[in-house]
Amino acid sequence: RSAAKGLLGGVGLALAAGLCAMAPAFAADPGVTKDTITIGVFGPRTGPANIYRLIDEGAIAVYNEANASGGIHGRKLKVIYEDDGCDPTKTRAAVKKLIYRDEVFLIHGGNCTSGVLAVKDEIVENKVPYMVMGATSRKIAAPVNRYVFTTVGLGDFVGQAMVEFGNSVPNVKKAVIVRHPDEWAEDFTNTVLAKANPAAPPTVIEVARNISDATTQVLQLKNLGADLVYVVLYLPESSIFFRDALKYGLKPVFVTTSTT
């Protein structure tokens, strides 16, 4: 709960400062009335990545707590939630609804990189302030844009921490990266490949999204004699991968992302 408060503190401070200094101008902005500020939240309430809904629910809980304390300068925060299922097509539909139909003042959401990258340009073109919820690709935050904000550890930053730990593991003969073939995994993977111990350069094994079995990949790792494995998978696929690793007695040192 305290972590959620810290994550959302920037949103609250920005809203409070803006409304205090520019109250007459803000009154004419979409999503702002004399009584309310409307915030759009999108994330995966359904689908295979719906575990990330916990992040969204934490954010909404903090917004509700702000309302219980009187809101921001007397305005209550009205939250409209849209389920995007971590599917870029659904994400586009959710964000279009929030911008054009609901006319929100601010959008706070996005736990899957592919969905956020699919809607970033539309958000920016409409000049809607956007706070990233959990997606980690550097392409979201860079180059710097006046409408896009994040407090999330980006993939290359987390990848640096992963590879520093991996390089500290003694007697590694074979390192492997197990990753999704998508943009989310790129920052982690590229950082590890660039900075891994040259005495044990990692091999890359790809795992598709929405798998129900990881036996093939686990057996590949066993055949390679992997003793250090970087796991760059979303939570559902991570669960399946670790289940099958246990099943087949795979016991290297596993290093995984902050998400997992």
What does this protein look like?
α3 links the parallel β1 and β2. This protein is elongated. Helix content is 47%, strand content 17%. α1 crosses α3 and α4 packs parallel to α5. The strands form 2 sheets. A 5-stranded parallel sheet has the order 2-1-3-4-5, with helices on both faces. A 4-stranded parallel sheet has the order 7-6-8-9, with helices on both faces. The protein has 260 residues and is an alpha/beta fold. The chain contains 10 helices and 9 strands.
Summarize the helices and strands and which ones pair or pack.
Layout: H1 2-21, H2 23-26, E1 36-43, H3 53-68, E2 76-83, H4 88-101, E3 106-109, H5 113-125, E4 130-132, H6 138-141, E5 148-149, H7 155-168, E6 175-179, H8 183-195, E7 203-206, H9 215-224, E8 228-232, H10 235-247, E9 253-256
Parallel strand pairs: 1-2, 1-3, 3-4, 4-5, 6-7, 6-8, 8-9
Helix pairs in contact: 1-3, 4-5, 7-8
